[in-house]
Design brief:
Elements: E1 17-21, H1 24-27, H2 38-44, H3 61-75, E2 79-83, H4 86-89, H5 94-107, E3 111-117, H6 131-147, E4 154-158, H7 160-169, H8 184-203, E5 209-214, E6 218-220, H9 225-240, H10 244-247, H11 264-270, E7 277-280, E8 285-288, E9 295-297, E10 300-302, E11 309-311, H12 328-341, E12 348-352, H13 363-381, E13 386-392, E14 411-413, E15 420-422, H14 424-436
Parallel strand pairs: 1-2, 1-13, 2-3, 3-4, 4-5, 5-7, 6-8, 7-12, 12-13
Antiparallel strand pairs: 8-11, 9-10, 14-15
Helix pairs in contact: 3-5, 6-8, 7-8, 8-11, 12-13
Bound molecules: beta-D-glucopyranose.
């Protein structure tokens, strides 16, 4: 892949936050020391995770968090985005773990940035139920009371779009439902949970609150109206459905009418002001008219009834996961957001960006990250207010339905010994951070 490697990466604005991300279910392990989540139940079913693995041990971060914080300190990041497991907080001693982790991070000079929900819902709860949003806000209050003296930046939810689509519409993630458009209440209840959580956090005295939403440009397969209409529809689902209720206080394209009940009052809660808006960016998607048949795409079976079909982005190198590498898609996405929402768009933080590759001398990952950091800088130059960038991920980890087959880490994990080995990309990111100081 072509890069500008050799030319230094331009400087980002003063105070720009550099970090790495992980999530609880993907790294913690110690599953026996918390109540079950929907992911434990889902994983137990046959054929759900490609390599038949579970997250019971994962990276055993629960027991090795000190070593992992030392890796963060060695990397020199400003901040660490991790997630708090709601099932663990519900279990005796669970919150103590996050207390210790936050202390360790603060002592190492790394700012803790917890995500309060990254897909591991307690197994007894269900996002189809409106009440789950209120239960979430109660849990958030408990966490904020305990950690709010040291945590100064918060994320409510991770990618409610993927959790709705993959988990409830297509059934390839937990809880494994295949409801297609009947999954829309799951979107509304998560958005409501976000708004209630913002209120709960503010009531506990917290500030600097955001969300991590997944986004990417949607490219029509051709200029034919059947393709552009299908692509517009997909764009609404991926880029607008979870953004506009927060940013504009309204659902796009009349989708509010498909949500459960009268959502007018809920939209006031959902649009509770946030301090910044998190974007997880991996790749653009090419979308065309439905093809009348089931489509296999990226290991996901898309039913024929969908009003769009996802196609290959041709002529691009791909990562080991098969995802196209399109750094300028990040510039396009962010300038597009700025043009669409203007002054109403909160400052942006890239809460995830990364790629799956094998090997410890991961020059491909370096090229991917180098290209994307430069593309991000181009968005800054174009006037987008970007305040931070987090690499996904610190460690190789349990990649959901792909099991351990996909490695996104800057640090390699040997799953038989749990030994951590920094990859070439870890050294590259450390040098980038030094040069930015
Ligand atoms: C998720 C992560 C995941 C990553 C790579 C994001 O959608 O937030 O949990 O590991 O993408 O697939």
């Amino acid at each position: 892949m072509a890069t500008d490697a050799g030319n230094p990466i331009p400087r980002f604005p003063a105070g720009f936050l550099w970090g790495v991300s992980t999530s609880a279910h993907q790294i913690e392990g110690a599953a026996g020391e918390r109540e079950p989540s929907v992911w434990d139940a889902f994983t137990a079913g046959p054929g759900r995770v490609k390599d038949g693995s579970t997250a019971e041990v994962a990276c055993d971060h629960y027991h090795r968090y000190r070593e992992d914080v030392a890796l963060l300190a060695g990397l020199g990041v400003d901040a660490y985005r991790f997630s708090i497991s709601w099932p663990r907080v519900n279990s005796p001693g669970g919150l103590d773990f996050y207390d210790r982790l936050v202390d360790e991070l603060c002592a190492a000079g790394v700012r803790p940035v917890p995500t309060l929900f990254h897909w591991d819902l307690p197994a007894a709860l269900d996002w189809l139920e409106r009440d789950t949003a209120s239960r979430f806000a109660e849990y958030v209050s408990v966490v904020a009371e305990r950690l709010g003296d040291r945590v100064t930046k918060w994320i409510t939810l991770n990618e409610p779009a993927e959790h709705t689509l993959l988990g409830h519409a297509l059934g390839v993630h937990a809880p494994g439902r295949k409801l297609l458009f009947d999954a829309l209440p799951v979107a509304h209840h998560q958005l409501l949970a976000h708004g209630l959580a913002v209120r709960a956090l503010r009531a506990a005295g917290a500030s600097d609150i955001g969300i991590a939403n997944s986004h990417g440009p949607t490219w029509p397969a051709s200029k034919e109206s059947a393709d552009t209409e299908a692509a517009d529809f997909y764009d609404v689902l991926l880029n607008r459905l979870f953004a506009e209720p927060l940013i504009l206080g309204e659902y796009p394209s009349g989708l509010g009418e498909l949500m459960p009940g009268d959502v007018t009052a809920d939209l006031k809660v959902i649009s509770e002001p946030i301090d910044w808006y998190g974007v997880n960016y991996y790749a653009p998607t090419k979308v065309g008219a439905p093809q009348g048949t089931e489509i296999e795409f990226g290991g996901i079976t898309m039913p024929a009834e969908l009003p769009f079909s996802v196609r290959d982005v041709e002529g691009r190198p791909v990562t080991d996961f098969g995802w196209p590498i399109v750094p300028e898609g990040l510039t396009e996405l962010l300038t597009g957001f700025r043009d669409r929402y203007g002054d109403r768009l909160p400052p942006i933080v890239i809460t995830e960006n990364g790629c799956s590759y094998e090997g410890i001398d991961d020059q491909d990952r370096i090229a991917y990250l180098d290209g994307h950091v430069r593309a991000l800088h181009r968005a800054v130059e174009a006037g987008v207010d970007v305040r931070g960038y987090f690499v996904w991920s610190l460690l190789d980890n349990f990649e959901w339905a792909e099991g351990y087959a996909r490695r996104f880490g800057l640090v390699h994990v040997d799953y038989s010994t749990l030994e951590r080995t920094p990859k070439a990309s870890y050294g590259w990111f450390r040098e980038l951070l030094r040069a930015q100081r």
